[in-house]
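Researcher: I'd like a candidate sequence for this fold, 114 residues long. If you have to choose between options at a position, lean toward the conservative one.
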């Protein structure tokens, strides 16, 4: 679902009853809802959206995002709702025999063939 045109009152719209109704309706239709929010700390939209979400993943850019900023942003959110942090745009290549490079790491156990 597209976000629409840029507006000055996005945080107010996301906090309001219309957006709450949209989220409630979408929850009835789908098992999982993924909301791609703008950067934390720059826009208030992400802070408002995380309050409507069951859980969150923080995406940080390698070589760009400072540790202090990640720590500061993580302090704002309940730890039990943070699923983790994704490191994006890392230059380092994984070895083909690395545990994290193997395809079975990414598949839930229920999907693995026995």
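Model: Candidate sequence:
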């Amino acid at each position: 679902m597209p976000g629409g045109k840029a507006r000055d009152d996005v945080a107010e719209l996301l906090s309001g009853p219309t957006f709450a109704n949209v989220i409630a309706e979408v929850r009835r239709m789908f098992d999982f809802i993924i909301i791609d929010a703008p950067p934390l700390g720059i826009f208030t939209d992400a802070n408002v959206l995380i309050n409507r979400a069951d859980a969150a993943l923080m995406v940080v850019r390698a070589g760009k995002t400072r540790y202090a900023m990640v720590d500061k942003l993580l302090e704002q959110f309940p730890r039990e709702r943070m699923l983790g942090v994704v490191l994006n745009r890392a230059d380092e290549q994984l070895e083909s025999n690395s545990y994290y490079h193997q395809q079975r790491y990414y598949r839930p156990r229920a999907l693995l063939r026995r």
